[in-house]
Amino acid sequence: MDIELIPGGTVTSPRGFKAGAAYAGINKHARFNLDVGLLVSETPCAAAGVFTRNRIKAAPVLLCQKILPSRSVRAIVANSGCANASTGENGQCDAVSMEAAAASKAGVDVGEVLVASTGVIGRRLPLDLLNAGIARIRLSADGGHEMAMAIMTTDTTPKEIAVKAGGFVIGGIAKGSGMIHPDMATMLSFITTDAPVDIDFLGYALKQSADRSFNMISVDGDTSPNDSVIILANGLADGEIVRAGTARAALFQEALDDVCIHLAKAVARDGEGATKLIEAGVSGALSQDDARLAARAITNSPLVKSAIHGSDPNWGRIVAAAGRSGAQLVENKLALEIGGIQVVEGGMPLPFDRDRLIEVLGRDEIFINLNLNLGCFAATAWGCDLSAEYVAINSEYTT
Known about the structure:
Layout: E1 4-5, E2 17-22, E3 36-51, H1 59-67, E4 70-82, H2 88-106, E5 113-120, H3 127-136, H4 144-150, E6 159-165, E7 168-175, E8 188-193, H5 199-212, E9 217-218, E10 228-233, H6 247-269, E11 277-285, H7 288-300, H8 302-309, H9 316-323, E12 335-338, E13 341-345, E14 348-349, H10 354-361, E15 365-371, E16 377-384, H11 388-395
Helix pairs in contact: 1-2, 2-3, 5-6, 7-9
């Protein structure tokens, strides 16, 4: 069954979801003059999440981890400009206060609200400003676009998508531009569906999709204390409950993968200071873990990223990154293509048109394919080039 992209789709495209956003004055650099958003379902949702493995966990992450998985979530409230991380017990109290303000606005119980924050670490939330901002939010069926803008920090563009398949819709938004090297997710992503989904399968499917998408991107090798991917399923679409082992479950997983991969690639493409998207495919690995290790090492290598920024055909950096990734490989079995141009076979360099490869590396999407020729496993990772602007952005982040 086909999966169809919904033009202009967003997190409120599935039935029964509304959202909105306002400016609370927390994010002084808000690109669209929005810094707090609220997403609400008209009925209780099955909900699951995956969160940062960083041992420094923001207060909103700790709060959500206490609630999820759940069969009764109605809303997500999120702000940009302040991460509410490394703020101790006071920060946890602030997250609860944020939850209560959102519950009052949405007309739901406090325990039915999830909380997310992103921004500068080590600062308390200005609750007076935040609560006033939440009160000004106007919810609407197309308000997902506003919410996508409200969670942006150094992002240059909102990231959103929706697809339909098998009588149900899955929509999502994400934010992320810097501090991106997830061990579960990107900085923030909220996904909704009107499919009726068994809660155990919902959590499993989200983890599978995160491993294939958000866990395969890198901008700078840093993982945030706030990384969160949350999915809500309100069951308002027709059809049988999506359960593990069924054809409907396979279709749901494929559609969810499409949504997550789109959002993950959008984050990588919008990396701080980035001018190029890097897609690294590794095939012929002995295991799935090996394929992922090698692919991620390539996209996260500062040397590879710098070479691609400068359109330098220094392919040795790619095989060297794979070699130190921890994946099993044999040098004399390696085959490497960059932009469709074969540069290595049997671990040895091949003659190639250097000027042609420089031209290919000047494009805004760079495709790398490394075949380990050892097994049958494959993986794809996404990243971006490393520019001087990245250094400028992060040397002035709080000043």
